[in-house]
Amino acid sequence: FTPTDEFGNPIERPEEEQVNINPDAPVITTDDYVRHRLRADYTLQAGRRDTFRVGGFYTIRDYDLAEATSRGLSTSWTHSLPSTSFNARIDWRKQRPDDSTDDTTQWNLSAGASHAVTRRSDLSLRLSHLIRDSDSSLDDYTENRATLSWVTSLGQRSNAAVRYVYRNRSADNPANEYTENRITLSMGTSWW
């Protein structure tokens, strides 16, 4: 895949970083494709406080000259108390873009807690560890992330949120290695 400008000229990438495409994400392209997706989920409510979920998917993006596939499994557990909930999740995903032999496997392990501070405000913390293994070692990385969020209701259909995210990615390829601190302020509303 070589990115091009609106006139079809290749865009030079000085870092020579490979562009990876998630087959489930929208792609800006002039190519026609058909997307086939199969998804199955099962949820078990165990008593009043525990919920277990397992799910999987298989996706094919069928282009004129190529095909990209993606498949994955996930499982999660949630334990709910009157004003606090705890959860843990494990995700596995395998991707093969454009009929290549370069498979990418990704594992994501996460755990979190959420607490209703007031009737209208929630405070939550989520920790995650992601491992990405590709046939091309330049695309391998490990990422640790911590997210602290405070969300409050501003009315029946509106809310505001403050989020702090710390992300540390280590990789064999220096272009994929970084540390990030991000604070996000957001407001939202629902029309129905």
Quick summary:
The protein has 192 residues and is mainly β. The chain is 0% helix and 63% strand. It is globular, with a radius of gyration of 20 Å.
What structural class is derived from the secondary structure elements? mainly beta
Please indicate the percent range of residues in DSSP E strands (runs of 2 or more): over 45%
Helix/strand order? EEEEEEEEE
**CA distance, first residue to last residue:** 41 Å
Low-confidence runs (pLDDT<50, min 5 residues)? 13-23
**Number of extended strands:** 9
Largest pleated sheet: 9 strands, antiparallel
Mean pLDDT: 83
Percentage of helical residues?
A: under 10%
- Strands of the widest sheet, in order across it, are 1-2-3-4-5-6-7-8-9
Number of helices in the DSSP assignment? 0
Return Rg in Å. 20 Å
Shape: globular
List the helices and strands and how they pair.
Layout: E1 33-46, E2 50-63, E3 67-80, E4 84-96, E5 104-116, E6 121-134, E7 141-153, E8 158-171, E9 178-189
Antiparallel strand pairs: 1-2, 2-3, 3-4, 4-5, 5-6, 6-7, 7-8, 8-9
Walk me through this protein's architecture.
This protein has 192 residues and is an all-beta fold. The protein contains no helices and nine strands. The chain has strands at residues 33-46, 50-63, 67-80, 84-96, 104-116, 121-134, 141-153, 158-171, 178-189. The chain has a nine-stranded antiparallel sheet with strand order 1-2-3-4-5-6-7-8-9, with no helix packed on it. It starts with 32 loop residues before the first strand and ends with a strand.
